[in-house]
Amino acid sequence: MANNKPSEAGENAKQKDLNKNTVSGDDQAMTTNQGLKINDDQNSLKAGQRGPSIMEDFHFREKMTHFDHERIPERVVHARGAGAHGYFESYENLEEYTMANFLQKPGTRTPVFARFSTVAGSKGSTDLARDVRGFAVKFYTEEGNYDLVGNNIPVFFIQDAVKFPDLIHSVKPEPHNEIPQAASAHDTFWDFVSLMPESMHMIMWVMSDRAIPRSFSMMEGFGIHTFRFVNKEGKSHFVKFHWKPKNGVHSVTWDEAQKISGYDPDFLRRDLWKSIEDGNYPEFELGVQIIPEEDEHKFDFDILDATKLIPEELVPVKIIGKMVLDRNPANFFAETEQVAFHPGHLVPGIDFSNDPLLQGRLFSYTDTQLIRLGGPNFHEIPINRPVCPVHNNQRDGYGRQTINEGQSSYHPNQTGGGCPFQSAMKNGGFTHYQEPVSGHKIKERSKSFFDHYSQAKMFFDSQTAVEKEHIKQALTFELSKVSREDIHKRVVAMLSEVNEDLAEEIAENLGLDLPVELDMDLNQSIPADGDPEDYQSGPAKPSVKKSESLSMSFRNGNSVQGRDFAVLAAAGVSSKSIEALKKMASEKGANVKIVSTKLGKIKSAEGDDIKVDTTFLTSPSVIFDAVYLPDGKDSAEMLTKNPDAILFVNEMFKHCKAIGMDGQGKTLWEATEAHKISTDSGAELEKIGVIANGDVDGFLKTAAKHRVWDRSSSCDIPA
Ligand code: HDE
Fold first, then answer.
1. What H or E segment, with its residue span, contains residue 145?
2. Does the pLDDT of residue 556 top 90, yes or no?
3. Cα gap 302→450, rounded to integer Å
4. Binding region for heme
């Protein structure tokens, strides 16, 4: 019996397919795996009430054996993730560029499954680690599965896949003591980075707030590598993929991230789950940067180099469709854990470039599923199987589901009448793009890959003052946890290639003098017989000096959809005041939660009962996007005596989030350090995001901006 809920778009092809395997135990008798009804699931079979257990108890043995084998290896990277179903809807006919069927007719809906993840941490680690986020989408097209396996950062640490195991070994917990979990702030990661100048651009991104997103629905996604679109005539264009979130791009601050990791390590997973349950479906537009073949060498970086992005000033992003995530998985393990992505899952009309990072990935993903999912039949697992027919001569292996009938399992054959048969291109048969290739068989990198600092500089210079400040704080935090001075020095030396001020400030924070003296061989990152002179990165000279789209402030979104607002309340609060906020907030897709000292109900000033949603004990300010102090004299006065309530408001102020108040709510505000600081600074309250007099509209508009960074200069607050 199926228990998957229909999505808003009705039952799509993938959902119907999954329903074949989805079962519910509702109103059903408990059975063994062989279908035998179970009479007693409370006691094992014993020789007498107080006697030893008996081997014959097949029910006990089956149950325990299954339990003993329940775990599978977690993903070697991206172990921690959360997934959701939905659909992709194309906006226009792209036949000029690609023959991909799902991109031909405007309005075509293709079922998708998306999985968002952190990279370094184990399956049970915090969602709020400073890390890249995986952004993987499986499109169940009529021509087979297409996987766009991307990240929320458009570049990567390394240029060649052969360095991936080293990168990951360096960032994972250190091998001798398995410390630290889900963190890059330790010696081995920074040792590796300090010896790999190509990682510098990516380091700028992961030290920015992009690496601590507020929500999976508030981050961009990128295919990173240059791919190809190929049309029916066989003409190819290079293409870069982008996902743009409808909710804007927003992050938490590092102070919040660390606190949330303690209070709610499932913060992002819960947010995704809940927003779908609430009908606030996360939505992303898919964009492409299309580059004609002839322009391959037009840029001052190599488009095959995954440590570079193509600034939107040089090639604009063309929006071609949208993805809506509207259904939670019915079972985490069956769907989110067993889903197997692979950048090599393609459809006709999409193809690869020679990016050496991408080429290496094409090997790794199948290989890793073999160990993780236990054999070569992982494509048969319901979440992985395509919605179109699958026929070939691959047979048998662990857990085989398909019952292939007939005598023949080879091709060519006459025993099966030549079936299954090959397809001509015009009938959808995939052919690889016929790119001319020439060259020596050689273990080398093109010189066009050697500029490691220009785009790092472009990224840093494109950030707002607050964003730059956060990068500095992140670098200081991370490097302060590194124990070796030689690593500090090498990183600072690299930073000085990006920006002198940045390097100086970090050096100062680490207690180093500039210029730093490097006392070791930096040439480990070149081949043993290489001449170091040949491998030098030139000085940073970005062709685009500032690219505004690299700053998160460019993608604010101006929406409160999916945001969580706290209302601080105690007995005597005005229910009218709360209702006014709730009405307008819920119309815009935001959630309002009543936070008080204990659960249960509180009597309002008007005499009705108000249900408390959560308490100061479990729900501190950091898990909310804004706070509202409603009218009600007794409530406000009572809360002024509560240190948790005072801390709540002070912390909201410190983190530059909107503070709204109505009527007597201001009594609580006036009891805070935040009030004192803002009064002393002489700032106009509204300008620093403190909205008084029950102006709900003004409060929501301020909250939609996510943060009032203007306040940050006056945010030195003990909270
Ligand atoms: Fe992955 N990566 N990766 N990666 N990757 C995996 O495959 C790998 C890279 C990405 O939600 C693994 O099924 C190599 C870039 C995502 O299930 C593994 C290299 C990008 C996910 C693997 C890279 C990604 C993975 C582990 C360097 C962005 C999670 C489990 C050449 C474009 C997918 C698995 C999910 C997962 C290998 C670099 C994205 C080991 C060798 C660059 C989103 O196969």
1. strand 144-151
2. no
3. 9
4. 75, 115, 164, 361, 365, 372
Using the mean position of ligand 1's atoms as its centre, give its distance from the Cα of residue 362 in Å: 10
Q: What is the CATH number of the domain that holds 711?
A: 3.40.50.880
Residue 672 lies in a domain: yes
Q: Which domain holds residue 690?
A: 558-716
Residue 223 alpha carbon, nearest atom of ligand 1: 32
Atom of ligand 1 nearest to the CA of 134: 43
- Which residues have C-beta atoms less than 6 Å from ligand 1? 75-78, 81, 115, 117, 134, 136, 149-151, 156, 161, 164, 224, 306, 339-341, 357, 360-361, 364-365, 368-369
How much is the pLDDT for 711?
A: 82
Residues 6 or more apart in contact with residue 396 via CB below 8 angstroms:
none
Asked whether 394 and 401 are in contact (CB, 8 A), the reply is no
Q: Give Rg (Cα) of the chain.
A: 28
What gap in Å lies between CA 485 and CA 507, rounded to an integer? 11
Ligand 1 site-directed mutation target among 131, 149, 153, 373, most atoms within 8 Å of CB:
149
If one counts the domains in the chain, the total is 1
Amino acid at 626: A
Q: Which atom of ligand 1 is nearest the CA belonging to 151? A: 28
C-alpha torsion angle, residues 398, 401, 402, 404 (rounded to 10) = 50
CA-closest residue to ligand 1 atom 16: 134
Q: How many CB atoms sit inside 10 A of residue 392's CB?
A: 9
Residue 457 phi, psi dihedral angles, 5° rounding = -65, -45
Annotated binding site: 75, 115, 164, 361, 365, 372
Per-residue pLDDT band at 425 (split at 50, 70, 90): very high
d(CA 101, CA 388): 13
Among residues 255, 710, 152, the alpha carbon closest in space to that of 466 is found at: 710
Q: Which helix (H) or strand (E) holds 222?
A: strand 221-222
Specify if 568 maps to a domain.
Answer: yes
Query: What is the CA(365)–ligand 1 centre distance, in A?
Result: 7
User: Distance between CA atoms of 694 and 697, rounded to whole angstroms?
Assistant: 9
Determine which residue's CA is closest to atom 28 belonging to ligand 1.
Answer: 150
Percent of the chain with pLDDT over 70: 97
In a domain, 608, yes or no: yes
What 645-650 contacts at long range (C-beta under 8 Å, 24+ apart), as own/partner pairs, is 645/568, 645/616, 646/671, 646/672, 646/673, 647/620, 647/621, 647/719, 648/566, 648/568, 648/595, 648/616, 648/620, 648/621, 649/568, 649/621, 649/674, 650/674, 650/717, 650/718, 650/719
**How far is the centre of ligand 1, averaged over its atoms, from the C-alpha of 500 (Å)?**
34
pTM confidence score: 0.96
Whether residue 4 lies inside any domain: the answer is no
Residue with CA nearest ligand 1 atom 29: 78
**Which 8-state DSSP code applies to residue 538?**
-
Helix (H, G, I), strand (E, B) or coil at 628: strand
Backbone angles phi, psi at 469, to 5 degrees: -60, -40
- Percentage of the chain beyond pLDDT 90 is 92
Cα 162 to ligand 1 centroid, rounded to whole Å:
13
| pLDDT at res. 4 | 42
Q: How far is the CA of 118 from the centre of ligand 1 (A)?
A: 11
CB 83 within 8 A of CB 115: yes
Model pLDDT for residues 356-371, shown as the tens digit of each residue: 999 999 999 999 999 9
Active site residues per annotation: 78, 151
Peptide bond preceding 420: is omega within 30 degrees of 0, i.e. cis? yes
- Ligand 1: atom nearest CA of 156 is 42
- The residue whose CB lies within 8 Å of the most ligand 1 atoms, and thus the one to mutate among 216, 361, 383, is 361
